[in-house]
Amino acid sequence: MEQVELLVRQAYREKAWHGPNLRSSLRGVGVEEAVWRPASGRHSIWELVLHCAYWKQRVIARVTGTRESLPRKGTDWLEVPARADAAAWRADVRLLDEVHARLQSMVSALDARALSRKCPGRSRTRESELVGIAFHDVYHAGQVRLIRRLYGRRRSGREKRS
Fold first, then answer.
1. Structural domain containing residue 130
2. Is residue 46 in some structural domain?
């Protein structure tokens, strides 16, 4: 049980051997960087933040057997607000933090026996869902890092011209 709880914490906020976690990857991202897309049809950092919040909430619902959802309309890839300003960006990062805090609290309340049981109405165990959401955070932390690197190159004029 403690191992799953640790994975969820490290993937999101705590220092880990694997490198940057999701929350540290977002540190210092401003609104212009958050909305920038590395190419047409690719996701922005802001979209990744909303996507991660959505899936954390889905895992909470799966593990607890509830239907609670995010206080935002949409599924999977939610839309960035029409008014994409710094206040809206901070609010969506705060939403991600709040959903993660609920997830972490839920994980802390589970015992080893509950962890090994299947999620209500699902074929996977609670442990599988929780390990999966930790992997999801680490995966998207890497994407955020890559987008930030590409954004920095674009701004500095170092990207190749074709």
1. 2-156
2. yes
CA–CA separation, 26 and 150 (whole Å): 15
Burial class (CB in 10 A: 0-12, 13-18, 19+), 28: exposed
Is residue 50 a part of any domain in this protein?
yes
- Each residue's pLDDT, cut to its tens digit, for the chain (162 residues) gives 599 999 999 999 999 888 899 999 999 999 999 999 999 999 999 999 999 999 999 999 999 999 989 988 889 999 999 899 999 999 999 999 999 999 999 999 999 999 999 999 999 999 999 999 999 999 999 999 999 999 998 777 665 544
CATH number at residue 80: 1.20.120.450
pTM: 0.92
